[in-house]
Amino acid sequence: MRIGLLGFGVVGRGVYDITAARDDIKVAKVVCLEDISLPDAEVTKDFQSVLADQSIDTIVEAMGGLHPAYEFVRAAIEAGKNVVTSNKALVCTYYDELIPLAEAKGVQFRCAAAVGGGICWLSELERSRRVQKIMQVGGIMNGTCNYILDSMTRLGLGYDEALKQAQALGYAEANPTTDVEGIDTWHKVILSSNIAFGVSLDTAQVPVTGISRITAEDVENFKAHGYVCKLVSTGIAKDGAYSVYVQPTLFENTEPEATIPTNYNLITLVGEHSGRQSFYGQGAGRYPTAYNVVQDCVDLLCGKGFYVPYGEKVSVDNSAKLCYYIRGGSFPADQIAQHWGNAIITKPVSVESVHAWLKENPDAFIAALNGVC
């Protein structure tokens, strides 16, 4: 396999390093805007030269973002080249376009590193669907948010202090919006649900709430009642309906999710035969993520293309009812079950109604109570 590598940042450099010792995979050209030189690969700023190189059969996209990543990946597929990417925003946003296009052009497309970093999560979904129906996916999918929430819980830090610490350690970007507002997790649960359930979700119907409004007072409130807060994704398939959402969630401090430290992830599937299976590991980092990219390249050598055939477009039904911790805003008095200081615990209310209420109360913070109210 000869690779055209797009991007030479954290993940791109990792892919180059891991493949350097292999004799079945070679990075032939690298598209990089910086002036660098490599001993065994041509470096160029011109993507078209990579596209025109008939000796390159596979494009590895490690640029991130939507543009020009989308234009490059689409052009690569049109040119008959296989594609491997770690870009969850790209795959989620253009799922309905890129997956059918790859199938029509007879090329292979894989994206294992797009969810879970170094955790072989999407690959396991692929294996699991061979023998059973998957009924639920989700969990802790963002290391930045988990680091912030873990630091607030264990170390007693405020949100701003925990965020600055995450940025200093390289876990959070200078602009952390995509992570802390839950968008990164939103992309990941949509992609995971599409693959697990063999569908294409209407993304506009998948609500997301992040952690940027949480306070140290909230965390102390949780601890006083025996709970730990995590940002969690949920995708459920039941009786032909699909419920998918992202929101802060409270777990009893003895539950597995409550114990996940620092920047680690815990992602779970529930299968009709296997029951619950959880996958734990670092959700980011140069070599964990690059490992999964290279594993995709090896799978391509074995003839394994995309995980499941492109599925039909489906709507999302978030009428399922949960109890919520709510601090701030004005919540209907007849839906309040109990008070936790200046916060309340609701009676069972639908996921969709709480997320709609939150849009009208932008200063409020919500967290679902995991399990039965």
Secondary structure: elements and pairs:
Layout lengths: L1 E5 L3 H10 L6 E6 L10 E3 L2 H5 L6 E4 L7 H10 L3 E4 L2 H6 L1 H11 L3 E2 L10 H9 L4 E7 L2 H13 L3 H10 L8 H4 L2 H15 L2 E2 L14 H9 L2 E12 L2 E12 L11 E8 L3 E8 L3 H16 L11 E2 L6 E2 L1 E4 L8 E5 L2 E4 L2 E2 H10 L4 E5 L4
Parallel strand pairs: 1-2, 1-4, 2-3, 4-5, 5-6, 8-13, 10-19
Antiparallel strand pairs: 7-9, 7-11, 9-10, 11-12, 14-18, 15-17, 15-19, 16-17
Helix pairs in contact: 1-12, 3-5, 6-10, 7-8
Provide a descriptive summary of the structure in words:
By secondary structure, the protein is of the alpha/beta class. The chain is built from 13 helices and 19 strands. The strands form four sheets. The chain has a nine-stranded mixed sheet, sandwiched between helices. Strands 3-2-1-4-5-6 form a six-stranded parallel sheet, sandwiched between helices. The protein has a two-stranded parallel ribbon with strand order 8-13. α1 (10-19) crosses α12 and α7 (143-155) packs across α8. The model has no long low-confidence stretch (mean pLDDT 96).
